Amino acid sequence: MMSVDKIRRLFGGAQVTTTPKRDEAVFKEIRTAYTEAVQDRAVPCAEGAGRSIMRRPIVRVAIAAAVIMVAGIGLHGIGGGTPAFADIVEPILAAQTAVFKVITTTSDGQVFTIEDGQFMHPGLARYTLRTGDKPDIETITIRDYVKGRSLALSPSDKVAVAFEITNRSGELDPRRINAFKELRDRILAAQKNPDEGVTYLGESRIKGRKVVGYRLAEGYRRTTIWADVETLLPFQIEHSRGHGGGSPKTETMTDIRFNVPLDPADFDTRVPPGYSIELMQMDESPPTEVDVVAMLRIWTEAADGSFPASLTRARVEDLKEIAATDKSPGLISASDLRDPAYRRRMQIRMAIWRASGFVRHLPEEADWRYVGADAVLGDAATPVFWYRLEGSETYRVIYADLSLRDVAPEVVAAFEDGADQKH
Fold first, then answer.
1. Is residue 266 part of a domain?
2. pLDDT score for 325
3. Which helix (H) or strand (E) holds 226?
4. CATH code at 221?
5. Residues in CB range of 126: below 8 A, 6 or more apart
6. Which residue among 28, 82, 265, 366 has the highest number of C-beta atoms inside a 10 angstrom radius?
7. What pLDDT is recorded for position 343?
């Protein structure tokens, strides 16, 4: 009896799942195929006869056919075989358009619903957002990443916020050109090593539909893809993120249809007539230390002088920390475009994105450190962040009064000792 690994190698790495019952069925089919292949040939049962027979092409082909028929290697619907992972994810890998609905639940129970979600390659997206506490208020968001424009509309009160990308450099981010790019990358990585990254979940029922599922696991992330048993088209995609990736949350994509006709006019980012408009810019130039200072200034202003506990945490978690000391309510949940909290939230998110981007891209030898969690805004003698680039004889240090200075390594060493003593 061949092992599963040998069968995979024999058939070019095809996905194989097996059970004792299926093993027995495979063996019976192999025995039948062998008997039919050699019944017209009288072969003495001498030593080595079995090896001689197995070298005959007709026998090998017959046995291979039996294995495929019973084990279901990549052939769903034949002999009750397991649907292949490749068949289920193929529509995701090939999608040029998609419509869907997404329900997001955060760790504190907040629910955000994206209705009428639409995607069109390259870089076009449109969806209607509602929050659980204000289901009657909707915000329509339209994005054209290739042109560098986005639009948020509040139809009930005719308010629009237009976003424009400035200072682009280099090639466009593939993840933002195609909404499924990250999921596709994870699928392709899992296909290279299915034994480690893909788990077959068997059959289940969702909303009365009979489905079959596979789960992709990578670190703190879990993605489950459920497909219709008959068509093998993706029916529901579930994402979950644990504490290792920031604030835990789950996202469930339902009502999915791929490669449906969509009207490009629905992705027009021009402000409709009759709307009041506010313009916001999103800077995509490479972030610098100036962005860290800018973020700390915005943060401390919003958080009554408090500094963030970290420079690299997830944005939602950061906003919650600000909201804990922010004097104006609704910083996180504001969905009304007229609400100043909505605009402030967008400004803070963009500032956090640029500052954390600068820190994340610092090389390991930059020897950076952030110690501002307990700092007091305005203290010119207390450092909150420092780093040193390769070839530099000094460190760049940001102080609690948000000034930037060049500092000798021995001074930074004293900062290190003081920070370690506090903790």
1. no
2. 60
3. strand 221-228
4. 2.50.20
5. 116, 117, 118, 140, 141, 142, 143, 266, 267
6. 82
7. 73
The token duo for 106 is 């955060």
Residues 55 and 107 in one domain: no
pLDDT of residue 60: 40
The DSSP code for 119 is E
**In a shared domain, residues 229 and 335:** no
- Indicate if 187 and 77 belong to the same structural domain: no
**Taking the complete model, does pTM exceed 0.70, yes or no?**
no
Question: Would you give the DSSP letter of residue 70?
Answer: H
* 217 and 356 fall within a common domain: no
> Domain boundary residue among 240, 258, 276?
258
In total, how many domains does the chain have? 3
pLDDT < 50 positions in the chain? 1-23, 25-27, 29-30, 33-34, 36-80, 244-245
Smallest CA-to-CA distance from 234 within 218, 253, 221, 249 is with 253
What confidence score (pLDDT) does residue 125 get? Answer: 94
Residue 274 domain flag: no
Contact 222, 60 (CB under 8 A): no
The C-alpha atoms of residue 272 and residue 281 are separated, in whole angstroms, by: 19
**Together in a domain, 345 and 406:** yes
What are the two backbone dihedrals, phi and then psi, of residue 182, each rounded to the nearest 5 degrees?
-65, -45
* pLDDT value, residue 82: 77
pLDDT recorded at residue 78: 31
Apex 137 CA angle, 128 and 331, nearest 5: 95
Determine the Cα–Cα distance for residues 158 and 153; give it in Å rounded to an integer.
7
364 DSSP 8-state letter? G
Phi/psi region, residue 158 (left: phi>0; alpha: psi -120 to 50; beta: rest), is left
Q: Give me the pLDDT at residue 423, please.
A: 52
CA–CA gap between residue 420 and residue 270 (Å, rounded): 53
The beta-carbon contacts of 277-280 under 8 Å, at least 24 apart in sequence, are 277/160, 277/161, 277/162, 278/159, 278/160, 278/161, 278/162, 278/337, 278/343, 279/161, 279/162, 279/163, 279/164, 280/161, 280/162, 280/163, 280/164, 280/343, 280/346, 280/347, 280/350
Residue with tokens 């059970």: 19
Query: 133 and 186: one domain?
Result: yes
Whether residue 384 contacts residue 296, with contact meaning beta carbons closer than 8 Å, is answered with: yes
Residue 373: inside a domain: yes
**Which of 50, 82, 114 is a domain's end point?**
82
What is the rounded CA–CA span in Å between residue 210 and residue 214? Answer: 14
